[in-house]
Amino acid sequence: LLVALPLALLPARWACWWASRWVTPAWWLARRRRRVTLSNLRQVYGRIWSDARILQVARESWRRVALSAVEALQIRRWLGTPDFHDRIEWVGPWEEIEGRHQAGEAFLLVSGHLGPFEVILPTLVHRGWRIDLLSRRIKNGYVHQAMHWLRSGTVPGILDPSGALPEMGKSLRSGRCLAMLVDQNTRGGLHIPFLGREAGTIPVVGVLQRRYQIPVIYLHSRRIEEGTRYRIHCEIAEFPEGDNLRQHIDEVTRAVNAKIEHWVRENPADWLWMHQRWKHRADGTREQLLPES
Q1: Whole-number Å distance between alpha carbons of 200 and 237
Q2: Helices 31-45 and 51-79 meet at what angle, rounded to 10?
Q3: Neighbours of 32 (CB within 10 A)
Q4: 274 near 61, Cβ under 8 Å?
Q5: What's the rounded Cα separation, in Å, for the pair 128 and 100?
Q6: Which H or E run includes 146?
Q7: Residue pLDDT tens, the chain, 293 long
Q8: In angstroms, rounded to a whole number, what is the distance separating the alpha carbons of residues 47 and 57?
Q9: Nearest to 271 by CA among 63, 89, 21, 72
Q10: With helix as H, strand as E and coil as C, how does 207-229 read?
Q11: Are 212 and 142 in contact (CB under 8 A)?
């Protein structure tokens, strides 16, 4: 409460400042997350970056996670403020896809844990989009309940992807979009290159796109001014048509990973490096984290 209440109640700029002040103690207290962050960055950039730069990006990525907490806590209030919408820059064919959605067309909305990702869906729902979010259960029960409560206040439809294929189909057939963050480790998915290493990747985009012939929209956002101004990008995905179902799903999953990798490399500190993205290997073994020093 000492941390969360000010993040929720302070004016946005002060809340972002308060969140940033907690990064240093969190960095030293959360030893496991710190080790994962540094190991991930060294695996990807260790040959081209100095240790000093890796440490700088690691800590900055934690600060941006703290900003995401502010955004998740305050977005409901921001949406009721007219000037908040005036400070959003919309980049991409938004007029086209919003018109298609208003006419009843459904989309798969694909994004990752990059930048102010918690801002995108609530803002679209506020503009009249009909969206269900695929969100798997977080291991920490308290964190799961808190995130479910926060997200359900702005994105009413939340589906657990485990065994939810009938519900997904029902949503798409009714003209509702399905939104998903697809850059998390998964034990039973396809092992596809991501940032130069094979990563267990959920193939849900390829499965749904092939089964329901649904267009895919890539979404990501950037902070222009913390807690104040945002830029939200959209892009209509184009995928090769595989000769068979297995090939199609593989090619779509590779294309999605490549797109998210492109966003990460554009601004590495925006990504969630504290997540153990390469935890499960194709041979069934677990990743061994690199030592901190």
Answers
A1: 22
A2: 120
A3: 10
A4: yes
A5: 12
A6: helix 141-152
A7: 567 888 999 999 999 999 999 999 999 999 999 999 999 999 999 999 999 999 999 999 999 999 999 999 999 999 999 899 999 999 999 999 999 999 999 999 999 999 999 999 999 999 999 999 988 766 666 665 777 667 777 887 888 777 678 889 999 999 999 999 999 999 888 999 999 999 999 999 999 999 999 999 999 999 999 999 999 999 999 987 777 889 999 999 999 999 999 999 999 999 999 999 999 999 989 999 999 87
A8: 15
A9: 63
A10: HHHHHHCCCEEEEEEEEEECCCE
A11: no
d(CA 130, CA 249): 26
8 A C-beta contact, residue 189 and residue 203? yes
Q: Tokens at residue 116, please?
A: 């102010």
109 forms beta bridges with 179, 217
Q: Which tokens go with 106?
A: 């459904």
* Three-state DSSP state, 10: coil
With a CB cutoff of 8 Å and minimum separation 6, the contacts of 286 are 279, 280
DSSP label at residue 194:
E
CA separation for the pair 65, 226 (Å, rounded): 12
Identity of residue 16: C
Burial class (CB in 10 A: 0-12, 13-18, 19+), 26: middle
d(CA 19, CA 23): 7
Residue 125, amino acid: V
Structure tokens at 165: 């294929």
Quote the longest CA-to-CA distance of the chain.
56
Residue with tokens 């895919």: 216
Report the chain's terminal Cα–Cα distance, integer Å: 34
* Contact yes or no for 15/227 (Cβ under 8 A): yes
Report helix, strand or coil for 232. Answer: strand
